Amino acid sequence: MGGSELIGKEEEQALVEIIERGGILLRYGFDEKRRNVFKVAEFEKKFAEYIGTKYALAVSSGSAAVRVALAALGIGPGDEVITQGFTFVATVEAILESGATPVIAEVDKSLNLDPEDFRAKITSRTKAVIPVHMLGAPARMDEITEIAREHGLPVLEDSCQACGSSYKGKKTGTLGAIGCYSFDYVKTITTGEGGMVVTDDEDLYLRASYYHDHGHEHRTDVPRGKDSKGMIGFNYRMNELQGALGIVQLGRLDYVLSQQRKNKKQIKDGISSRKDIEFRYLPDEEGDGGDTLIFFLENSEKAQELEKILTEKGIGTKILPSAMDWHYAGRWHHMKGKIKPDGEPLEKTGELLNRAIAIPISVYMTQKEIQKIIDAIAK
Ligand SMILES: *Cc1c(COP(=O)(O)O)cnc(C)c1O
Fold first, then answer.
1. Looking at residue 191, which CATH number applies to its domain?
2. With pLDDT > 70 as the criterion, what percentage of the chain qualifies?
3. CB 60 near ligand 1, within 6 Å
């Protein structure tokens, strides 16, 4: 559950402070009234420093972050954007909202984008690729960025589930042209609802900034009402309450990650002697955020059997079968006619997910809880 487990006095104080210092909740304008309180701007600055990019733009959600990043890249009707068949539905919705066509590729045993299927799905219409770092673990970014480079495609990383994770020493979200994060209530850190777009590219940053605020260029020499318009936009702004929470939660991120990694390792070590389970392939195990422990069983019957045992013991699992509806493209019949491939199942992705067990890892887990999970799996 991440940062939501830690919400406490500091978050309360940050919210109270905003009200006490004038209660300006909009991130822009009101310069004379706001007594130098710019929480969203401060959150952006600190986030960019933490993540290691030149620019960060806070937005209203992770879904908004992907939508805004696509707008920054100039993606629109007639374009195709490749992403993976195992992701939260929001990735694909954002592509649809941009007017482009989502093209869904298979995942491999990393449960993230299969580089070879990505390559196979590139057409003359492909304009971008969105690898998603699912459940805290980075995708095979070396292969993905290399294939994208060969084809001149920008990489938009959906790091909504992997805030603070890294790949070969760089944070996920900073390996492509532009990266996205979510701070919804169940993500690594939370602002209730919220998101972030990061990039090193000034043009992309400016376009994202215009697009997320009705096209505003945010000139400092004129009042907001007289601002010039950089493009047609929409409203995906973050507000000051979210910004204040974000600053506090960002300060908790390393703690969240270290706790999750520690708890995950203990459970993994506790079951690793079993020969009948195969752990999810991690392209960079050290960079994994520790959010979830995933392993494959021999077939879906065995996975369902184990899930039943775990559920009986009160241990929640994240994929089988309940969470798949919103995370596996093979179940999105409501998108029929809008995504490619249309109607054909994603065989490899479905096969892998159907025999995967995902154990959610928390920041706070007692030794007793950890042992209970190990024992239940052993049984
Ligand atoms: C949560 C999530 C999103 C959307 O984030 P929200 O803040 O909930 O809108 C996008 N992509 C992935 C992979 C996610 O897990």
1. 3.40.640.10
2. 99
3. no
